[in-house]
Amino acid sequence: MQLTEDVAQRVTEAISRPSWKSADPTLFAMLLQKNADQNRKVVRWGIAAAVLSYICYGAFDWFLFPDLADRLILTRLTLGLTFLVLVELVARRGFAVTTLHYVAALAIVAGAIGWLLSALGTTHQEALSHFIIFGTVFILGANLFFNFRLWLSALSSATVTVAFASATLFVLQADFATRLVLATYFANCLVLSLYLSWRLSMERYHTFLHALQAQIQEQVAIENGQKLIEIADTDPLTGLKNRRAITREFAELCKEWAKDNDEIGVILMDVDYFKRFNDRLGHQAGDDCLIELARAFDETAASNHAIAGRYGGEEFVVLCKVAGHDHLREVTHQFCRAVEDLKISHPDRDDKLDIVTISAGASLTRAEQSIELRILLQEADRALYASKFSGRATFTIYDAQAIDQKRASQNLSELLKHAVSEGLVSVVYQPICDATSGQVLGHESLMRLRDFDGSVISPSVFIPVAEQTGGIEELGLWLIDRACGDMVEHGLGAVVSANVSVVQLKAPNFPLHIAEILGRHGMAPHKLALEVTEGSDISLEAQAARSIEQLRALGVQIWLDDFGTGFAGLAWLRRFKFDVVKIDRSFLHDCQTVRGLSLLQDMVRLLRNLGHTVLVEGVETKEQQNLLQHMGIQSIQGFLTGRPVPIEEIKQARRELVA
């Protein structure tokens, strides 16, 4: 049933309308249509039962009117069977319920008057004066049994009433008092049964209205829910799927991946020299450019049965099912070519091209690795950066042994050497909040890096290179120094945290450097937390383990980051006492399944039993926050409570709050 806005408005008006006013014809027609099958059955079985009863009443004719018994019984048989066949014929031919009602009403009237006309000639008038009340059966049947429209009930029952009342008053041979009482009785039966018929009809109508209203409200709720889901899963500028939706789509692809031979490809695309495009032409032109690119990506994705989304800024991501590396290469090439075919003018490039292009990196699931979007994106990100160092406007398929990626790493290591002195590295802060009150408890400091042309380099790309080349030592100390300085000057809550790697912990005198930074800024050690990522077994690294113990002795908090994603988590929990254990975001996002929810609950229970404070990352929705509150989680972190922002934005937000 199509519930349009017009129907919804009609329902609202009909419910508030006084009961004595006529029903809305459109809604009443919908009621008849809704109950058409049921009414069809009522008429067919009702007529069958009525005919059987009508014929059986012939036994009374045999005893009461022996002089006309043959004629009366023949009348009953003829009329009863004729209309029974006629009703069945109309029903089986698929005529409208209204037509079936007409035939049934005619059967009632014909059966009543046919018997009456035959019975009036009997010589047993006294017996007839008693048995003539048999006519009320037809009146009640017309009004109460078949769910006729009120006017049809009234017409058929009134016809029967007039016939029996007239026969009683003017033909029946009985005293006047008897005839008057019988005629009055027929009239009373008519009025009472018509009233009951009207009441039942109104009850059915209003019940239908309220059911319709409930259905409309449910439909509106479902549509609103779908709109909210669509809004939550859609990038507002381009209309493509956002990061949240891409994560869910990847999970669906993984389910299919187990059933077929195709692999899952992840393509990461970045607009070349987009910052220069924005600076030269303005942000509106930049938005228009992204919208055009999104349309091209969406069309290309549709032709390849792929899924395109905006991953953030000028970065786009594609999920696709491919037969292998060659297929992934062809699909990636199509996306690059689709952008070039748009021929969007770019007025400020270092190369000879004068149009907008993209650099792309792609990665493919492999049998020897786990199927995680995070890992595939990191690989695609590294391949993307290799494309940039190869001159842009090209694409690279991830290969750990590829020469171009080695060259990219070499170029990046050179960039990292000058990152601090050239001002290419910066820090942003993401709030850590109380799960119940939402109060900001502290902030996590995160490093950001830009290329010489202003384009952003993902941490998943430059951090591994910095660790391999040793550049992470200088960058890491710079980050901690900035975080402590901002903490003292601007106040970032009870604690500010910074990520440290095993490479940093193994560096000579790392705890002494931390002590020097804290002393120089005059900051209490317990206000600094160092987050160790569960990536390798530091318990096997003597110097790293010694550094952790020395930092704890200094008073610095030691946190375990991304718990559950590495292989050494339980060993670490036995070896070290962490002030906070951060559960990786993937476990929260898997809570949509019963198994995922059970796993998260078990992890929280384990950590509590070991005496650790639990922080859950990746909180993006109010539903996730409510779930964690119900589980008794102390603190949370994620886009719901705040995105990573520079210290200037935190200061501005505070000024606006005070104002």
TrEMBL record:
Domain GGDEF, chain residue ranges per copy: 262-400
InterPro entries to which the protein is assigned, alphabetical: Cyclic-di-GMP_PDE-like, EAL_dom, EAL_sf, GGDEF_dom, Nucleotide_cyclase, Rev_trsase/Diguanyl_cyclase
A Pfam family this chain is assigned to: EAL
Keyword DNA damage appears in the UniProt entry: no
SUPFAM superfamilies, sorted: EAL domain-like, Nucleotide cyclase
Key words of the record: Membrane, Transmembrane, Transmembrane helix
EAL domain residues: 409-658
Transmembrane segments: 42-60, 102-121, 127-146, 153-174, 180-198
DNA damage as UniProt keyword: no
Xref: CDD domains: EAL, GGDEF
PANTHER family per UniProt: CYCLIC DI-GMP PHOSPHODIESTERASE PDED-RELATED, CYCLIC DI-GMP PHOSPHODIESTERASE PDEF
NCBIfam families with a match to the protein in the record: GGDEF
Name of protein: Diguanylate cyclase (GGDEF)-like protein
Organism: Mesorhizobium shonense
Phylogenetic lineage: Bacteria, Pseudomonadati, Pseudomonadota, Alphaproteobacteria, Hyphomicrobiales
